[in-house]
Design a protein that fits this description.
By secondary structure, the protein is α+β, with helices and mostly antiparallel strands. It has helices spanning about 10-20, 25-35, 85-95, and strands at about 5-10, 45, 55, 60-65, 70-80. The chain has a single domain (about 5-95), classed as 2-Layer Sandwich (YaeB-like fold). It has 3 helices and 5 strands; from the N terminus they run βααββββα.
Amino acid sequence: MAGKYELLYSETSRKLILKLHPRLKPVIKSKIESIREDPYIGKPLERELSGYLSVRTNRYRIIYKILEDKRVIQIYHVGHRRDIYELFGEEIRNLKNIFPSLK
């Protein structure tokens, strides 16, 4: 897979990254750059989160989706492992389309 992918952040992921402790921000941003270079490093999620991938960094997880045909990675959620999957599951149940411009 030659070349980097474009990154798109959901409004939720932007807010969550801004709220992170200053020491965590560079770690998360570095992991997101790793995803950009090799988007398939993440673990495929199951059940209601099928189609999304998750990558870990310390005790945090980054949930994202790859749009291979557009060479885009959508960053959906960033959070602590203890509740990220429940929070993101609730978010996708409540929102029909987090990225309305990419139909």
